[in-house]
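Module 6 notes. Inverse folding takes a fixed backbone as the condition and produces residue identities as the prediction. Think of it as a translation problem where the source language is geometry and the target language is the twenty amino acids. Below is one complete input and output pair. Work through it position by position during the lab.
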């Protein structure tokens, strides 16, 4: 079972808007050196809504090739079209991704039965392990715990990223899911508590700027070392909050630019971080001692 800090990595872009594969490779190397357990490529933080299908595939392939088995690669392959989700997941499998991350279909508002059939169809079309992704704040529809439990019976559906920040429902999942079904949180602010309760890790935005601290936090929390986890988490609290002062990934791309890791270019309809938030986020980076 994959455990620890899985970074929901940004998609670096040049100042002209083109994908910056050299910057992406440098970020991957940095994460591997810092102890990140997995690279989640082309998720929400990777601006999946604004990259083309061709770019989406190129990002997955480049990440697999550059990682070269040094770290797990989790390819974002979800879509609100089941056919498109299958196409992307098949591609991820064909180039050697270790897992796929499949988000709840957004905008078209399927029923729970529709969600079950959607993920079942994807799973039956591939053999790659699939991690479900529930983020109702973005998709509108919520993947109910009952549906997750039902889906867990499908052999290659192996985990879930739950971004609800609801620790009660997380506890219910821990109680009802098979022991080998991985549970990750998608909320950095409650990640320490989630792992101390029995979760397997976090698919993290904060890890983009503080990879070593997030890796250490996960290690301590998963091992049940409450005091050590709390001390690390306290350094990260401002980042957990302020990296969402505007819609993700606006703040985190600005932060990585401030750290000299890449250009801060972000594609429309998202816009660069408002100047009024610069000092706030800069202070959070300093508190975490990453600048």
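Target side of the pair, the amino acids:
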């Amino acid at each position: 079972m994959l455990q620890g800090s899985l970074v929901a990595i940004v998609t670096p872009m040049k100042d002209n808007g083109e994908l910056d594969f050299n910057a992406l490779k440098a970020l991957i190397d940095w994460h591997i050196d810092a102890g990140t357990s997995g690279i989640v490529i082309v998720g929400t933080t990777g601006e999946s809504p604004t990259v083309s299908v061709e770019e989406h595939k190129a990002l997955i392939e480049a990440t697999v090739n550059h990682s070269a088995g040094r770290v797990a690669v989790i390819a974002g392959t979800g879509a609100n079209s089941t056919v498109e989700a299958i196409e992307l997941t098949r591609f991820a499998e064909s180039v050697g991704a270790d897992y796929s991350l499949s988000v709840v279909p957004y905008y078209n508002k399927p029923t729970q039965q529709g969600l079950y059939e959607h993920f079942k169809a994807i799973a039956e079309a591939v053999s790659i392990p699939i991690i479900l992704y529930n983020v109702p704040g973005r998709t509108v529809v919520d993947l109910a715990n009952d549906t997750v439990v039902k889906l867990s019976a499908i052999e290659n559906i192996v985990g879930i990223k739950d971004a609800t920040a609801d620790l009660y429902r997380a506890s219910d999942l821990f109680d009802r899911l098979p022991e080998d079904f991985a549970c990750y949180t998608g909320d950095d602010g409650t990640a320490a508590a989630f792992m101390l309760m029995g979760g397997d890790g976090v698919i993290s935005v904060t890890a983009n700027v503080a990879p070593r601290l997030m890796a250490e936090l996960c290690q301590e929390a998963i091992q049940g070392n409450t005091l050590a986890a709390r001390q690390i988490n306290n350094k990260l609290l401002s980042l957990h909050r302020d990296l969402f002062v505007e819609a993700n990934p606006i703040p985190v791309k600005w932060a990585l630019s401030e750290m000299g890791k890449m250009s801060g270019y972000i594609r429309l309809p998202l816009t660069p971080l408002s100047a009024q938030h610069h000092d706030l986020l800069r202070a959070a980076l300093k508190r975490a001692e990453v600048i």
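Reference fact for the lab report: The chain has a mean pLDDT of 98.
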